[in-house]
Write a structure and sequence with these properties.
This protein has one domain. About 80% of the residues lie in helices and about 0% in strands. The protein is built from twelve helices and no strands. The two termini are about 35 Å apart.
């Protein structure tokens, strides 16, 4: 990576951190105005699919899918769909920053799952950091449970589901273009949503029974898909221009945007215990990123020596 392209990646990652919370704001505004959570979730995939079609055509990317690719993409879409539903269910009543802080335990969950599923080595220091990070999440969850009840656990479900989403992404990223992956995830997610919405119509299930949007709700529903598409395109290209190890720490700056927007639009501001939890989660996450860098560096340094030994007659 050259310095210039790395700088481009950093700028795009910061753009993601500014734009992504606008998705959450749009979803919360729609939910507060009576739009069911399931309909908000479906809107993300409807709009994102419509926006990704011209992008894929303009880039001239192949959209052919093998049976294996379709299966993985559908699984990826399912995890994204349910994690989105869980997060919107949480921010329907919780402050966005509180919910996002809880979701930030996802790297810890991903680290543990990577060890269990892929056999990734996880040393005692990173395990300890995961434990500390979960304690930070409890600091955020505890007052939220007292204020909002069990709905405060929805963001934790989002973290778990999004970790599985990232594992599937890891499995297919080596042989599928990221833009194509996003496009196929969008339309398969839409196909998964539509039967549920059709069956739920008239069911009187508050979170699923769709309504006819009125007034500003059309804009909020469009915003959910629009900001999702734009922010994830920023992240996709950020990872193209800069190493993930460089970009990962920047992801935590998303909490700054979430706090600012939550305060300006909804009048929400984290209390002292939530701030303490955020600090613990971010510190633990940054430590894990640091350890990942050291492990990657050690592996890269060991590789030439291993090759030399293998080549020795």
């Amino acid at each position: 990576m050259t310095r210039d392209t790395t700088l481009h990646g950093i700028i795009l990652m910061l753009a993601f951190c500014v734009i992504a919370p606008l998705l959450d704001v749009s979803a919360k505004l729609a939910a507060e105005n009576g739009v069911p959570v399931g309909q908000i979730t479906a809107a993300r995939f409807v709009v994102q699919t419509a926006l990704m079609i011209p992008v894929v055509l303009w880039m001239g990317l192949s959209i052919r899918l093998s049976g294996k690719a379709l299966a993985y993409t559908t699984l990826r879409a399912l995890f994204l769909l349910v994690s989105t539903f869980a997060f919107v269910s949480g921010i329907e009543v919780m402050p966005i920053a509180d919910a996002l802080a809880i979701v930030f335990v996802e790297p810890f969950i991903l680290l543990i799952l990577g060890n269990l599923i892929f056999g990734d080595h996880v040393g005692p220091r990173r395990i300890a950091a995961c434990a500390v990070g979960f304690c930070g999440a409890l600091l955020v969850i505890q007052p939220s449970l007292a204020a909002f009840g069990l709905v405060a656990l929805w963001p934790l479900a989002t973290a778990v589901l999004f970790a599985f989403y990232m594992l599937v992404t890891r499995a297919i990223s080596a042989w599928m273009h990221p833009v194509t992956m996003q496009f196929h995830t969008s339309w398969t997610g839409l196909l998964l949503c539509l039967p549920v919405m059709i069956l739920a119509e008239g069911s009187a299930i508050p979170s699923l029974d769709p309504i006819m949007p009125q007034g500003w709700n059309w804009l909020w529903l469009f915003g959910v898909g629009f900001w999702a598409a734009v922010s994830h395109m920023c992240m996709t290209y950020a990872l193209k221009f800069a190493p993930s190890a460089t970009l990962a720490p920047l992801h935590y700056s998303e909490i700054v945007t979430a706090v600012a927007l939550g305060y300006l639009i909804f009048g929400d501001f984290p209390n002292s215990m939530t701030w303490a939890g955020i600090a613990v989660i971010v510190s633990s996450g940054l430590y894990i990123i640091h350890r990942e860098r050291l492990a990657a560096r050690a592996k890269a340094q060991a590789a030439p020596a291993t090759e030399a030994l293998t080549a020795t007659p």
